[in-house]
């Protein structure tokens, strides 16, 4: 199952797949990640937050589940290096991903 952690309920996502859940709170806190089921998770995606928060999430995730695979979205090469240092096995270029999403949205409207 999929679980999304958001800071605030006002950031709630619509259209989650069946069985998907949302948890609200600071994703850098182990208790919030535990409430999201990270202890049993196979993968964690860390994106759309400042680098220092991504590093806190990675650290808390490793404490809770040392086997979880962490995917991080980096804004630049330096951020990618930090994410790898904090346990992200896979790092994607956030700008490339956003560009791809924008392109798909434009094509869908044409």
Structural class: alpha/beta
- Helical residues, percent: 40-55%
Mean pLDDT: 87
The fraction of residues in strands falls at 15-25%
Explain how this protein is built.
- The chain has 110 residues and is α/β, with parallel strands linked by helices.
- It has four helices and five strands.
- It has helices at 30-35, 51-64, 77-85, 94-109; strands at residues 3-6, 21-24, 43-46, 69-74, 90-93.
- A three-stranded parallel beta sheet has the order 3-4-5.
- The longest helix is centred in the C-terminal third of the chain and has 16 residues, at 94-109.
- The chain is globular.
- The relative contact order is 0.13.
Layout of helices and strands, plus pairs?
Layout lengths: L2 E4 L14 E4 L5 H6 L7 E4 L4 H14 L4 E6 L2 H9 L4 E4 H16 L1
Parallel strand pairs: 1-2, 3-4, 4-5
What is the structure about, briefly put?
The protein is of the alpha/beta class. 41% of the residues lie in helices and 20% in strands.
Output the keywords.
single chain; alpha/beta; 5 strands; 41% helix
